[in-house]
Amino acid sequence: MSFVQIPTAYAADPSNVWAPKAFFDGSDPFAIVMRVQASSDLVRAGLSYDAVFQMANPRQDERYRWWIALGDHAYEQPTKDIHSDNQRFQYDNFAHWISWDKYSDAVREIRGLERNKGLFFVRAQIDVIGTNLFAHSGDFWYKAVP
After folding, report:
1. What pLDDT is attached to residue 42?
2. Within 10 A of 21 (CB to CB), how many other CB atoms are there?
3. Which residues of the chain have pLDDT under 70?
4. What does each C-alpha distance from 53 to 1, 23, 40, 96 come to in angstroms?
5. Taking the CB of residue 99, how many other CB atoms lie within 10 A of it?
């Protein structure tokens, strides 16, 4: 039986994606990592997946919202979603991650008083292309300071 799951997703230093990290300052390297376990059937079949990494701000009060300004409009953005599409399964137990040189780069297009300061979380999802298989992680909380 084919399956896919994300036992964990977390923030990390990109130099060691196997070790979760829960505190970042604005100049720290930053990665979002998802650990994936998949049936070897998916690898043998040559299937691919779409992944979404998400940074989330749980605070939605007026003073601390995240928002993005595009032209003359501002849009509330409680999450930042990063897509990694059409990735081929090569292993049945692996880590997939995205990274930035600095935490401040990860939130550069976000506006709001606390984009670099506060308690936030990351999570991830995977969708196996052409099948009904998908998985999502739980939330991993971290603290950011300027």
Report:
1. 95
2. 18
3. 1-2, 60-65, 69-70
4. 26, 18, 23, 10
5. 16
**What are the DSSP calls for 50-109, one per residue?**
EEEEEEE----STTT--EEEETTEEEE-SEEEEEEEEEEP--SEEEEEEEESSHHHHTTT
Q: What's the CA gap between 14 and 142, in Å, rounded?
A: 15
* Neighbouring residues of 16: CB distance < 8 A, sequence distance ≥ 6: none
Q: Which domains does the chain have, with CATH numbers?
A: 4-145 (2.60.40.10)
pLDDT of amino acid 74: 72
Contact 123, 137 (CB under 8 A): yes
Global pTM value = 0.90
Q: Which of 145, 142, 80, 144 is nearest to 111 (CA)?
A: 80
Question: Any bridge partners for residue 123, and if so which?
Answer: 54
Asked if 145 and 115 count as a contact pair (C-beta separation under 8 A), the reply is no
